[in-house]
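Bench notes, afternoon.
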Amino acid sequence: MASIDSIRREYERYPPNGLRRFTRWFTKRIPTRLYARALLIIIIPMVLLQSVIAFVFMERHWQTVTQRLSMAVTRDIAATIDVINSFPDKTAQDEMIRIARERLDLSVAIEPAGDLPPPRPKPFFSILDQTLSEEITRQIRLPFWIDTVGNSNIVEIRIKLENSILRVFAKRSQAYASNTHIFLLWMVGTSLVLLVIAILFLRGQIRPILKLTQAAESFGKGQRMPDDFRPRGADEVRRAGIAFIKMRERIERQIEQRTAMLSGVSHDLRTILTRFRLQLALVSDGPELDALNKDIDDMQSMLDSYLSFARGEAEEDVGVMSLKTTVEKVAADGRLRGANVSVTVEGDDDINVRPNAFDRLLTNLVSNACRHADEVTIHAQNRGKWLTIAIDDDGPGIPIDAREDVFRPFYRLDEARNQDETGSGLGLAIVRDIARSHGGDVMLSDSAMGGLRATVRLPV
């Protein structure tokens, strides 16, 4: 028998369909930015609190005060009716009308007997109408007609007596707590003031986080960190900023050490290869020596490839270059390889990239396509916040299950399309490394031309 804990875990893992739908619906509609979510965290409790306060006030204070005022007005009217019934002569009634006007602040008139007007439609929400009707029914117990609708400051009450109709005009403020709107205005006004203060405070707290995000994105794209970046804001944000600066310094120090080591290795190996080349030059010519010279050239090229991949062009600064000029240059190199290369460029011409690295990225992709295909098209589009370059060919392509493997260093296919001229197996690995160092990526898919499509997508 399943335990309670296992049932609860299963319920939490697979909630009911209705709950899942509501969760997805709610997740899609709440804002994603921290600033908006922080405002919601402030606004929602404030609105709930104010709603509860308003409800309690209306339910307790407003309704209670209105009920007591209506009770007092009804009591005065009941007393007036008792006097009229006790002293039916005209002189006593006139005196009662005067007393009601001067002492009770009620305008009273006695009209001949007749029918009351038809009942007026009751308002959708009126505490006064409901409370006053209940009090007249409870205290006077005679047929009546009241008019509390509208913005008039007067409430009219007609009561059917035995031989006449008593018509009473009372001020609305005598039976109704009419100053309630002041409380509501104060409540809404203070809420708006608190909201403005919260917005100003949140903007000051969110700004350091945005600065930290911008600095991290710039560092991830290989760009210089903004000069005005300093850890600011709350303690947690400051600690995150300081941790980021220390991490950046460690990474830069590691890159500098690796670059220095690679430069030393490159210098030593190039010296040895140069000695080999000089020793071979002193020997008489022959087919064996041509093969050895070819091996030295291949070793030199492979060494350059390895060092470029390990170095990753990370030390190069970002600059502005012409997209059209760069693509046309790479296309011209592809045509020299015997392929028919066509180019289309759309959008802005200026791009902010690391020039040498970006040129190498396009050169590797286009030369790889030209090596395996006769027709190659390059479509570059620089619009919005993204630069997209699609390179299509009519070659044999790459199997779907191997399209991620070819980006691994030294991975080879039988018809290895990730090899550069020297067959080092680093062509596509270098391409992806450069693309990701710019904050983008490169993907492989089927081409409409029947071969392979390489799509480069970089933020600009």
